[in-house]
Amino acid sequence: MGLKEEFEEALESLKQIDFSKPNAERVPVFETTIRYLGGLLGAWDISGHQYPILLEKAKQLGDFLFRAFSTESGIPTPYYWWEKELPKGDTIPGENGVLVAQIASLSLEFIRLSQVTGDVKYENAIQKITDQLENTQNTTTLPGMWPSQANCMGPNLTFASRSFTLGAFADSAFEYLPKTHLILPKSTSAEQYLRMYRTALSTINEHLIFRPNLPGDPDILFSGTVNVHSGKPLLDAQVQHLGCFVGGMVGLGSRISNSTSELEAAIKLTRGCIWAYEHTPSGIMPEIFHTNPCTNTSSCAWTGLDTDTGFARIDDPSYQLRPEAIESVFIMYRLTGDRTWQEKGWKMFRAIVKHTHTSIANARLQNVMSATPEKGDSMESFWLAETLKYFFLLFGEPDLVSLDEWVLNTEAHPLRQAG
Asked: What single Pfam family name could you report for this chain, choosing any that match (predicted)?
């Protein structure tokens, strides 16, 4: 992007940060890993390993976070009270009600840290978590998937929740399966992640993916939520903007397996989120809504009124500057080379900028079902780290962060594939 001066200014500021002694008493392990550790490793890789301070600080932060893995199960506590010193050899208490995304979305960053430092302790810690995830994958109430919450209090990971989603609380746990396969050289571990992804995808296709009943019967798909009651999985056709990454995930998986049918599904999933953008007054998809599901994924005659839009209910009409939809559009363009994806992305970009622009930044929106949405007084960091980056890459040259050579973590930090 040509921001070398700004990059070097950031490096100078980085030198003043001591990641072994954060200002906060309680450190969120997941958020710190995907944003800070992922950001440092991504900067190290994308800058061609020219700036040792990036690797030095990544290791310093990695070692700090590594202490949070000192639980009975080896699964890190979600919030690390780092100033509470433990007796030598003691462990940190595990917790119940831990979000599955918090424990299953650390692999890319810690494996990459092992790769660039040569210290296998980080990857070994992740392997212990991965083995427990695989051991429990087919023992949940919806075999093949993990529910949104986990119990990490004892020596082994267990699940009691009966809610299964690719949206909030669980999203990146599944996103990281094919991505971790890609970042690893060919190995037993790499095959393990692919095997777990294939197992999850089978369940996702059977229970979570649905065709919506919409005017004109567009050939699109959405991912919903499944709640298991009395052993029976029941689909809740709730669509979350957070779940729009699924098209890109399935697309990356299709490339690994060279599967035409999986690529077709990825295209339909991505088109689903584009549909949601194009059918609101603002041109922007709401945070959460419901549609009515079809009984199959092949065809579905419209059963509503001519005046209906297809949105059965708007649960949350806001837009939080989220990246998931444009992330999948970017991946679809890179996988297919079809410039229609760029056209769709440009339309999304114009609508977002039109409504979110302020004199100093971009703001979240209160209600995208209005033609002139009111702005909220906040801007999430992922607007810069992810949303704008994916728009930039969509219109960049294909060899810029090529998907043949790079894996983007859940905060869009680019990590080099090994081997």
From this structure: Glyco_hydro_47
Asked: is 187-399+408-413 a CATH 3.30.70.20 domain? The reply is no
Task: Let me know: does 359 contact 365? Beta carbons within 8 Å.
Answer: no
Give the residue extent of every domain in the chain: 10-161, 187-399+408-413
CA distance 335 to 258: 11
**Residue that is written with structure tokens 């033609």 in the block:** 371
pLDDT tens digit sequence for 244-296: 999 999 999 999 999 999 999 999 999 999 999 999 999 999 999 999 999 99
How far does Cα 289 stand from its chain's mean position?
19
Closest CA to 67 of 86, 54, 53: 86
Neighbouring CB atoms inside 10 A of 340's CB total 11
Q: What is the pLDDT of residues 299-332, one digit of tens each?
A: 899 988 766 889 999 999 999 999 999 999 999 9
Helix axes 38-46, 52-66, angle to 10 degrees: 160
Contact 105, 133 (CB under 8 A): no
Listing DSSP states for 142-191 in one string gives STTS--SEEE-SSSS-B----EEESSTTTHHHHHHHHHHHHHSPSSHHHH
Active-site residue set:
31, 171, 287, 324
For the CA atoms of 388, 276, 399, 7, the dihedral, rounded to the nearest 10 degrees, stands at: 10
410 labelled binding-site residue: yes
Using DSSP, state whether 417 is helix, strand or coil: coil
Crossing angle of helices 260-278 and 324-336, in 10° steps, is 140
DSSP one-letter code for 216: T
Distance of CA 216 to the CA centre of its chain: 31
Q: Using the structure block, give the residue that is written with the tokens 């890190």.
A: 76
Nearby residues of 160 by Cβ (< 8 Å), 6 or more positions away:
147, 149, 151
Beta bridge partners of 210: 222
